[in-house]
Amino acid sequence: MTDLGHARYCDEIVRQTDLLRAVLVDADPSAKVPTCPEWTLGHLARHVGGAHRWAETTVRTKASEAVPDDQVPDITGPGDAEPAALDAWLEEGAQKTADTLRAAGPQEKVWTWNGDDRAAFWARRMTHETVIHRADAAIAAGIAFEVAPEVAADAIDEWLGIVAWSQSTGADEQSNELRGAGRSLHLHATDVPGAEWLIEFGADGFTWRRAHEKATVALRGPLTDVLQVFYRRLPADSDRVEVLGDAGLLDFWLERASFA
Length: 260
Known about the structure:
By secondary structure, the chain is of the alpha+beta class.
C-alpha cells in the first residue's frame, strides 16, 4: 500500500477542514444534506469536528481501546445558533488533531478499529473523513466539489482497503457478499494518468490493484466524479460518468461496500 505520508496527512486535515469551513460560512446550518439524509449542515459540521476531537484524544492518550465520547473534551461543539463559534470550533479541532498527530509520529502505538494500531491510521482516516464530508457539504450547498488528484486517488485506495478489511473480519454480511469468481470492476479516471483500479471477485472475496485491464464493468469519468460515485455521493447513472458493461455489478458493489 502506498500513501501520501504522515506529514501530508496532518497538513490535509487542516487544509480540508479549512475548505469545509469555507463552504459552511455562508450556508444555512439547517439545510438538509441529501447524501446524509438524517443530517443538516450543522449536524455534519459537528460530526466532523467531533471525529477530529475523538481521534485526537485517542492518539494523545495512547488509548488501548475505544475512547467513550464522554471522555473527549468538547466533542459536541456549539449549536447552530452560534455559526462563528462553530467555525472556530472546527478550526481549533482540526489544528489540535494535526498537532497531536505530528507530535506522536506515524508509528506511535495506539488503538484503532481495524488492527493497524498506529497513529498513521488516524492521520489518513481523518483526512479522508473530512474530504468526503466536504463533498457532502458542497452537494448540500449546491457548489462544485474539487480535491487534489493525489488526495482523491488515495481516498479510493483507503476505501478499498477498508472494505477489504471489513470482508476479512467476516462480521459484515454486506461486504461478505462481494465475491463470485469471474467478475471484475474497473475504475478509470479519464483526467489523471495512472488513476485506475481493477477489483477482481473470487470465491473467497475480492482483491484489488492499480491496473488498466478489461473488466466486467468499467466506471469512467473525471477522478473527482469517480470518487464521488464510489463513495455513493454521486449516482452511478449521472451524466458526469460513464458505465460500460454490466452496470448491475457496479450497483452490486455500491450496495454492499461498507464500514460495518
